[in-house]
Write a structure and sequence with these properties.
With about 525 residues, this protein is mostly beta strands. The chain contains two helices and 44 strands. The protein is globular.
Amino acid sequence: MPRRRWAGPFLLALLSTALILLPAATPPSAAAAPSTTADTAPPRPGAAADTAPVPLPSLSTTTTQVASGLRRPTALAAPDDGTGRLFITEKPGTVRVYHPDTGLDRTPLVDITSAVDQSGNERGLLGIALPNDFAESQDLYLAYTALPDGAVTLARYRLAESRLEVLLSQEHAEYSNHNGGQLAFGPDGNLYWSIGDGGGSADPLRAGQRLDTLLGKILRIDVSRGCGQLPYCVPGDNPFAGTPGAREEIWLYGLRNPWRFSFDGADGSMWIGDVGQGRWEEIDHLPPGQGGLNLGWSCYEGLERFEGGHCAPGETYTGPVLTYSPYTGGCSVIGGHVYRGRQYADLVGGTYIATDYCSSTVWALRPDGNGGYEQAEIGEMPTQVTSIGTTVDGEFYVVNDLPGGLHRVSFQREEPTCRVDRTVKTWGTGTTVDLTVTNTGSTAVSGWTLAFPLALGQRVVSDWNTDLTQGSNTIAAANAPYNADIAPGASITLGYLADHTGDASPPPRFTLNGDACTVGR
């Protein structure tokens, strides 16, 4: 199967400047609090902190299936207890154990099916997190939709007693989708939990921008103790602690369905994959310990104003660092992790890896050293991956929904076989782009399609030396009858004229017949 990779520098600048600003207005009664910076612990000892020097287009991903027979697996976690095990949640309400030497245990470690509402495609047992003291406490934390009404629920499960203790619940009865479900302990020792906007289409509950509900949020709580009537405590430095009308557990808001997020073990920064409505999937990268940020939904989907969305006056929205269109074949971003293992540190150390449930594309993303980001497609995952997890040592595994398997992830170096050089002329509301495509491989190309995205607001008016079609912001430029063959070392040229609405930037990445090309000038 051909590799499907896009590569090139990303368009956004520093995280601190990746903000979309609305005109100032009188804040609403539940006004957004200023962002909060929390104390964070140092990185885990032994974490690989250096970024690998290998260019992203020179990377490739493969997977090896190591277990089968899982019932719609949803998440993975690795206990730091010296056993080398992986815990895998299954949608009906069970936790299975995998060991690389003995395989998948037949008997579940945990069975809470009697408490789980698994109706609908997106309900069920959704997330798992293990505290640092798991080896001693034998406690684990689960996120699930609960019977009888589908309320999204956080609970502690005490393995020694086979006992489930509900800690926090949010009503979620109107719709069965957008439950979120990621759990992760942050570098500060607090537990973070993502909840979707309550479901339906176009945020009908207006939950993303509201602070009086936990829907459309990422929460932060201290589960090591209780406070008053609560079986947990709200950290005093949470951004909305003490804010009238706001839920104090909220850490981030303006999210649609943050199905998977993670923390970078080297610097504590947070990566979020937020599933889009239908035009944009997005990945956010936030500085360590910074709460109170508004990620835009439903005023924005990705970087684009969402028609009919809820825009609160006077708000500042933090933009994503990567967006991609479902026109590329995707449908639901699956947020992953920054690779901090040792086996492939020389290849992908410091690189964030994510995928998509429908396209199975593997996205690689990392800071470029100049305040922006590089990105590339570096292969494909198995079909319908629902979660990317890591071992205690930082190596990657994935689970896929159907047919229910566990797969080990590997990386290797594979040099690109094409290069694209760009010549751009811009004036007023127009831009002309000439592209030179060079076959840098050892075999001839016979028949080709060059795929690339356009910036928001660009529309192709005419083209030359190609049969070009535009879908949303994606371009598929196929060969003409007279330039279908590209010999090794040879080049062909093509181009287009486009209108723009302010952003005249050229395409940042290209694939030739599904393989990523190096981007020249």
